Amino acid sequence: MSITASASPTLWQAGNLADKLLSPIQSLQHPTICTDSSDISHVEPQNQDPNLCLPSNAQLEGVLPAAVPTDKAPIYPGSEGHDQENDPNFGTSSFERFQRTSQVISLTLSLDKFVTYEVPTEASFSYFTDELDCPFLSPFDSLGWKRIKQSIAQLGAQEVSVARCILSTQALHRTQVDRLPTEFAMSLYQAAISSFQFVLDNDNIDFDIILIDAFLLLLSQIILPNRDNPTFTWLDPVLINRLDLRLRTGHKSPISLRICTWLQILDTAAKRGGSPSLLPDSVFNHLTESIPEAPSLSSLDTRLDPGDTLYDTTSTPLYAFYLKVQRVSNRVADVSHYRRSRTTPADQAEVNVILTGLKDTMYALWENRPGPLRLQPRELRDHFNFAIAEPTIALAGVCLAAYFAELIVFGRTLGDPIFPSIESRHAMAQIRGYVHGDWGSSSGGTLNPGYLRALFLYGVECFEKDESRWAVERLRQIGNPLSRGNFFASFIELHGEAQRAQRRRVTMKYFCRQNFGVPLPFV
Fold it and tell me: How far apart are CA 455 and CA 489, in angstroms?
């Protein structure tokens, strides 16, 4: 892996404590019977709970029942044929049994408590690598998402700040997916932020580690319900300086560059609905200028499966296309009425000039789109085997839908005309074709979450009830919990009724607050 651990000391130091604690527990399976607690010599003093004070036999006399002679012990139903020779309780008094059980409980608790302070292993991050998902990234970069998460998990076993960010991110993800209380997950999140503040000011920490920490914290912001406050604005000067130094003079690994592109996509997803940016504008601009293309990840592992290598070669240009579309989307969000004045003729004239230039950029992207985006699914299947063709087709479908979704945004942002333009209607028809067509949009009755934004924009821009209902039904088919497809479906139903009743576009951000009592989720 190209990212190396720093020399910073770890905060978890447990050594072979677990082995030491396990030894006395195992010995209690066949114990030496002691008549007094002071004779327990096989338990190491430093491993005993200092708060544990076992009572003596004399203290328990009169409280515990007297020991029953073994030759008069009662026979309980079902005990006939019991292997008494191998039963550690056979022939012992009640006090001895209680004493042994209390020791096992005490040592078990000590072991489990101390294990929480050990250095996390990769196994601690299995939920992160296997389950954690992001609907704004994984549908468009599935191979990169999988491989980089594995690399981050490996680094987390060595770096405290990375481990804390992983643990907080996966804990927050679980709370949202399984609808669990967030109190403990939020405490992990706050600890991760504190750790990030420390490493950010430490010049001895490799910037790749800082970048991974920042990405995981931003990912946590995407997972959490929206908050109407910027995330890292207060880190602007320090983060900018270190980022500038690395991008201009330092070694740039494929993982770091790919993560930088993910940061831009997450920032764009956050700001489009009127929420504050996740990144300072200066950071976003610097990333765009320094990383014009998405890097390939094929060089990370020479033992990579040949099929994955071929898919990486095929999919990287498609991801690069999607990234450029999202960069345009970010610029469009900057001129919405959420972020600048739009109430004077001069405002509208200026915005019109900006959007015209951005639309020309979109047209240029379309003219220069990569080869797989020019082919139909059957043509891709003719030229690739099944293992390469199917994920390529699915990726092409969501990338094409994302492109046409942004064309809808141009008309809605400009606000003229007040109803969908011919170009917007054409874009909506294209989106419907990708969802209904042979583009691998569904699997097991569940719709690809990469279609979330396209369907949402389709739903809010159409004024016909039947078309709106179609978008609602498709959104409910998105099974990814973090996509919040059911919420967006309910939003479109109510929002569509308001637009049809008022015969105008209704501002989504304020409508959401008024009717649902929450900020509009990231989309």
Answer: 9
